[in-house]
Automatic annotation (TrEMBL):
InterPro entries: HAD-like_hydrolase_phosphatase, HAD-like_sf, HAD_hydro_PyrdxlP_Pase-like, HAD_sf. PANTHER family: PHOSPHORIC MONOESTER HYDROLASE, UPF0655 PROTEIN YCR015C. This is 5'-nucleotidase. The lineage of its organism: Eukaryota, Fungi, Dikarya, Basidiomycota, Agaricomycotina. Keywords: Hydrolase. One of its GO terms (molecular function) is phosphatase activity. It holds the Pfam family HAD. Gene3D superfamilies: 3.90.1470.20, HAD superfamily/HAD-like.
């Protein structure tokens, strides 16, 4: 595979919404939710927070790839004997929805704007938690993520969408097909800038932020979620690379910005120039 070639996907993609004027793509862990579910599993059922921090540092320093060390984190949960259904149950009991997301999704649904989750996590885990948080409404949200290889005895491991990519799942590949359409829609992308874990991690880049960076360049309007002010990793990356973006603390702040663009009061350039949603 050349540096510019798209990594081969082991999993199908949903159909492109070629007839839509606006499309929302969003990270899941720490963005639509208030904490990272994979970190939660690793810290509480797997190798623990200290070892996870070490692996995050290895990813940032280039000693290893996200694909390699993310697998090590999740494998530590399975190695401790925690079955897949148990993991889903634990996360349903502990992962919380962003307080503004329901209103945001209601607005998008009312205006026929597809909402697509683009995640480095595993689809059955995300779907289980999402269904718990949004009930019947969750069915309308598409998920593009990795999968899980679950054995007959309920032991499991992650199945990467893009095993040849150092991301495991290169999120940009969910965005680029829209950019290549003859009449591409305006793409809103939401990613998180700090870990959703508790306690917050300041010594290393949160794992899923690495893969948000692969998508950041390709969105028309990029929202970066911050929980600790402007000093967060994705924000720093966008500043360094000259990528315009909007900081927001929860989806209730994103709603009026998206409304302004969808309803024609402001251009995407105008909302990006503001830099913040508050």
């Amino acid at each position: 595979m050349t540096a510019d070639a798209a990594p081969e996907s082991t999993l199908p993609y949903p159909p492109i919404h070629a007839d839509k004027q606006f499309v929302v793509l969003s990270d899941w862990d720490g963005t639509i939710t208030t904490r990272d579910s994979n970190d939660y599993l690793t810290d509480n059922l797997g190798m623990g927070i200290d070892k996870r921090r070490e692996l995050n540092d290895d990813i940032v320093s280039g000693k290893s790839t996200f694909r390699e060390d993310f697998r090590r984190m999740l494998d530590s949960v399975a190695a401790n004997g925690h079955k897949f259904e148990e993991c889903k149950k634990v996360l349903r009991e502990n992962i919380v929805l962003d307080p503004g997301f329901k209103a945001f999704y209601k607005y998008c649904k009312a205006h026929d704007i597809p909402v697509i989750i683009v995640s480095s996590g595993m689809e059955p885990i995300i779907r289980a938690v999402l269904s718990n948080l949004l009930a019947d409404e969750a069915a309308g949200i598409e998920i593009i993520s990795n999968a899980a290889d679950v054995k007959a005895d309920d032991s499991w491991s992650i199945k990467y969408r893009h095993p040849s990519s150092h991301f495991g799942h290169d999120k940009s590949q969910a965005i680029l097909p829209y950019n290549r359409l003859p009449n591409p829609p305006t793409l809103f992308f939401f990613g998180d800038g700090v870990s959703g874990a508790s306690p917050p991690i300041h010594t290393s880049i949160a794992a899923d932020v690495i893969t948000d960076m692969s998508a950041a360049r390709h969105a028309d309007v990029l929202f970066v979620k911050t929980k600790d002010g402007p000093d967060n990793d994705l924000h720093k990356y966008c500043q360094r690379e000259g990528i315009p973006h909007i900081l927001f603390r929860d989806f209730s702040q994103a709603v009026p910005v998206v409304q302004d663009v969808v309803e024609g009061r402001k251009t995407k350039e105008e909302v990006l120039a503001a830099g913040k949603a508050w």
